[in-house]
Amino acid sequence: MERLIFATGNEGKMREIRDILADTYPEILSMKEAGIRTEVAEDGKTYEENALIKARAVAAQAGELVLADDSGLEIDWLGKEPGVYSARYLGEDTSYRIKNADLIRRLEGVPEEERTARFVCAIAAVLPDGRELTVRATIEGRIGYEEKGENGFGYDPIFYVPELGKTTAELTEAEKNLVSHRGKALRLMKEELAKL
User: Which of 34, 144, 159, 160 is deepest in the core (most CB within 10 A)?
Assistant: First the structure.
C-alpha cells in the first residue's frame, strides 16, 4: 500500500502523523486532501469506538487504507474527565485557552501528587478488504498550575510530564513524537500493519 488517508482535518495532528509514518507510506493524506467531505457523529463510548466510526465513514468513500484516531485527556481527580468528550468539553467551538483555564480552576487546591492525568490515543485502521485493527497508547503526567509552552495544541500547555520536567507544549515536535500517546499509538499501528 503506497498511501493512506487519515480521517482528520487537524493540521497539528497531520504533522505528527506524517513525521512518524513517512518511512512507511510515501503519501499520507488528510480527508480534505483526499477530497472526502463527511460529517461524522462521534457518539461511541470509548476511544476505540469513536476511531472506528470515523475510519469506517471515510473508508466507505475512499475504498483504500484509512486510519483514524480518537484521543482524550483523563484527569483522575475529576473521575477521568473530560475523557472521550475532550474535544467537545465546554462546547466544540470553545477555545483550548478557556478549556485549560477551566480545568486548572477545577483542580484548585489539589496537591501535586493527586493531579495525575494521562493522554489516551486509540487508532483504528480500516483496510480496503474490510479488515479492522485498533491499538491504544497513553502518556502519564500531571495537570500543571498554568499554561506553559508554545508548541503542541489542545491540552498540551497544561499537561506536565514529571520525568521530562516540561509540559508537552514545551517539547520540540521530535521530542513529543517520541513520548506522546499519539506517537506511541502510531508506532504500534505501524507494527500491526507491517504484519499484514
Answer: 159
Provide the grid cell at 148: 506553559
Amino acid type, 146: E
User: Is 23 exposed, middle or buried (CB count within 10 Å of its CB: 0-12, 13-18, 19+)?
Assistant: exposed
Architecture in CATH for domain 3-194? Alpha-Beta Complex (3.90)
Q: How far apart are CA 181 and CA 136, in angstroms?
A: 8
Q: What is the phi/psi pair of residue 94, to 5°?
A: -75, 135
Cα–Cα distance measured from residue 37 to residue 139, given in angstroms and rounded to the nearest whole number = 31
Q: Are 151 and 180 in contact (CB under 8 A)?
A: no
Q: Higher confidence at residue 59 or residue 196?
A: 59
Confirm whether 23 is a catalytic residue. no
**Number of residues assigned to the chain:** 196
Query: Which member of 69, 70, 93, 156 is catalytic?
Result: 70
What pTM does this model have?
Answer: 0.92
